[in-house]
């Protein structure tokens, strides 16, 4: 499976880009946000990728960050949300906006994506609300963009999945750090995020990072 490609932009379409990797052209479908950030023709780009395999077709989807890629994969697990619909949601909201909308139950934000109706939007929020904190807990690492190497080569990588358990030592500190990192990545000010996490931890002393993120978001919600 192709996990990442690095090459030169040959051309950009309305929903895809052709990346030339040592003479081999890879047609990669991307969200509007990703396409807008790609270099002009001839520029070097690196994209994390996800390969969709069908009986009669193979489609490659590209993402600038691991968080973008993980959200795309998670969105497509919801019935009625195909790969193109997931790209539409990402194009409107971005990874941070998706995290915020799902965590706060903002169906209207999800529905604002082209081709996404109210029933599907509600389904996305309902089915993914308990899974959102895992991606948010990826922190800054998930938001790092794919690096462009000096040589244009195919580079297959395996994304590092978020940890599903926390060591017994420093459980609280680790959960607080993960929650704070996730909130800052969502755009909250460091001070506001830290105060919300501290209050949430005080109210839920045994909570893990996912529970802290959700509790802190509820505390911050009225200010949005």
TrEMBL record:
Residues of the region (Domain III) are 173-224
Q: How does it assemble?
A: Homotetramer. Forms an RuvA(8)-RuvB(12)-Holliday junction (HJ) complex. HJ DNA is sandwiched between 2 RuvA tetramers; dsDNA enters through RuvA and exits via RuvB. An RuvB hexamer assembles on each DNA strand where it exits the tetramer. Each RuvB hexamer is contacted by two RuvA subunits (via domain III) on 2 adjacent RuvB subunits; this complex drives branch migration. In the full resolvosome a probable DNA-RuvA(4)-RuvB(12)-RuvC(2) complex forms which resolves the HJ.
Residue stretches making up the DNA helicase Holliday junction RuvA type domain: 1-62
Is ATP-binding found in the keyword set? yes
Residue ranges of region Flexible linker?
Answer: 160-172
| Localization | Cytoplasm
- InterPro entries per UniProt: DNA_helicase_Holl-junc_RuvA_I, NA-bd_OB-fold, RuvA, RuvA_2-like, RuvA_C, RuvA_C_sf
What family does this chain come from, according to its entry? Belongs to the RuvA family.
Lineage of origin:
Bacteria, Pseudomonadati, Pseudomonadota, Alphaproteobacteria, Rhodobacterales
**Chief localisation class:** cytoplasm
Provide the protein name. Answer: Holliday junction branch migration complex subunit RuvA
One Pfam family matching this protein: RuvA_N
Q: Where is this region: Domain I?
A: 1-64
Its keywords, alphabetically, are: ATP-binding, Cytoplasm, DNA damage, DNA recombination, DNA repair, DNA-binding, Helicase, Hydrolase, Nucleotide-binding
GO MF? helicase activity
Its UniProt domain note says:
Has three domains with a flexible linker between the domains II and III and assumes an 'L' shape. Domain III is highly mobile and contacts RuvB.
- Domain Holliday junction DNA helicase RuvA C-terminal, residue spans: 175-221
What the protein does comes down to:
The RuvA-RuvB-RuvC complex processes Holliday junction (HJ) DNA during genetic recombination and DNA repair, while the RuvA-RuvB complex plays an important role in the rescue of blocked DNA replication forks via replication fork reversal (RFR). RuvA specifically binds to HJ cruciform DNA, conferring on it an open structure. The RuvB hexamer acts as an ATP-dependent pump, pulling dsDNA into and through the RuvAB complex. HJ branch migration allows RuvC to scan DNA until it finds its consensus sequence, where it cleaves and resolves the cruciform DNA.
Q: Which SUPFAM superfamilies match?
A: DNA helicase RuvA subunit, C-terminal domain, Nucleic acid-binding proteins, RuvA domain 2-like
| The gene coding this protein | ruvA
């Amino acid at each position: 499976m192709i996990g990442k490609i690095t090459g030169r932009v040959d051309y950009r379409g309305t929903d895809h880009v052709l990346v030339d990797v040592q003479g081999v052209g890879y047609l990669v479908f991307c969200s509007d946000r990703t396409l807008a950030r790609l270099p002009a023709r001839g520029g070097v780009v690196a994209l994390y990728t996800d390969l969709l395999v069908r009986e009669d077709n193979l489609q490659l989807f590209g993402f600038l960050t691991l968080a973008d890629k993980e959200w795309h994969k998670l969105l497509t697990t919801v019935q009625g949300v195909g790969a193109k619909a997931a790209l539409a949601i990402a194009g409107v909201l971005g990874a941070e906006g998706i995290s915020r909308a799902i965590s706060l139950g903002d169906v209207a934000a999800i529905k604002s994506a082209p081709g996404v109706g109210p029933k599907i939007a509600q389904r996305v929020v309902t089915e993914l609300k308990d899974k959102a904190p895992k991606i948010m807990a990826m922190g800054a690492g998930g938001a790092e963009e794919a690096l462009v190497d000096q040589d244009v080569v195919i580079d297959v990588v395996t994304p590092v999945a978020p940890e599903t358990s926390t060591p017994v030592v420093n459980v609280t500190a680790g959960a607080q750090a993960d929650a704070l990192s996730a909130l800052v990545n969502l755009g909250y000010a460091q001070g506001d995020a830290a105060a919300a996490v501290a209050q949430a931890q005080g109210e839920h002393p045994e909570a893990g990072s996912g529970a802290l993120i959700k509790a802190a978001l509820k505390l911050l919600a009225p200010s949005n």
